[in-house]
């Protein structure tokens, strides 16, 4: 009987110890939290890289900082996310620069000029290292109360269509083209295409119903969103490099202890490099899959490439001049020519 009482007491003490340990772990695990909102779905490479970042932060912080991911526009869409970060409605968000930034500082639109930058790295260097670019970037951070945590590029942008083979400039006339950003409009008008403004979440249905038949997008998106069910033709060259970012609300970020801030930034650097290193290769992989599904790619060369370049220089760029200040354009052109 005494032995039974002793074992029962020992079991109760062990249970209490386990409960206390679990309670202590729960307190530690919930010490700091964050919510990360993205419009990309769970199949998109940007979501996958963001999840790698989140997992790394949780692991390196020993569970002290847990960031919950909300993808597929559960909280904010592609056009609304920057406002959500600024207001503190979410702590972090996935922002496509050419969508979220120009309404805050229109000079970010230089990133949409066809053929201006030749890589993501060159574009980033302009906004980080050149005097004018750094001025634009600093203004964006100040006005949005945000901190850059991670580069998470969407991909280089090209044209896809379900209507006809995109053999050259003339093939674009009368196509029903989706417009996501205002800076796209001058090009579609120069082509003689019909323009329909749509959010990313509306594209699949619009392609399905025939509301649109053409879109400018990184190749990765036609696979992630299954748009290639309707898009059968593609055209290169790449027009511009659509960079994206994991941005944090600065109030949230600055309240983190310095060791957690370091973990967040180191994880962002690590998986931002992974995302950037893979982005071009993944795009080419998608194009190969697109062709294997029966898609037909055209890469403009010779006279057609000259015709494309002339259209961009003589019609599209002049029509874009209200999208940015002249000194921002000059600074970007000077930077890229060096």
Which second-level CATH architecture of the largest domain applies?
3-Layer(aba) Sandwich
Task: Compute the CA-based radius of gyration.
Answer: 24 Å
Determine and state the CATH class of the largest domain: Alpha Beta
Structural class: alpha/beta
Specify the helix fraction band: 40-55%
Shape field: globular
Number of strands: 13
For the sheet with most strands, the description reads:
5 strands, mixed
Q: Low-confidence segments, ≥5 residues, pLDDT <50?
A: 1-28
Mean pLDDT: 92
Please give the alpha-carbon distance between the first and last residues. Answer: 89 Å
Biggest sheet strand line-up: 2-1-3-12-4
- Helical segment count: 13
Element pattern in H and E = HEHEHEHHHEEEEHEHEHEEEHHEHH
What this model shows, in words?
The chain has 338 residues and is α/β, with parallel strands linked by helices. The chain folds into two domains: 33-155 and 242-283, Bacterial extracellular solute-binding protein, family 7 (D-Maltodextrin-Binding Protein, domain 2); 156-241 and 295-337, 3-Layer(aba) Sandwich (D-Maltodextrin-Binding Protein, domain 2). It contains 13 helices and 13 strands. Strands 2-1-3-12-4 form a five-stranded mixed sheet, with helices on both faces. The chain has a four-stranded mixed sheet with strand order 9-6-10-13. Helix 5 crosses helix 6 (131-144) and helix 7 crosses helix 12. The longest helix is centred in the last third of the chain and has 35 residues, at 258-292. The protein is globular. The termini are far apart. 44% of the residues are buried.
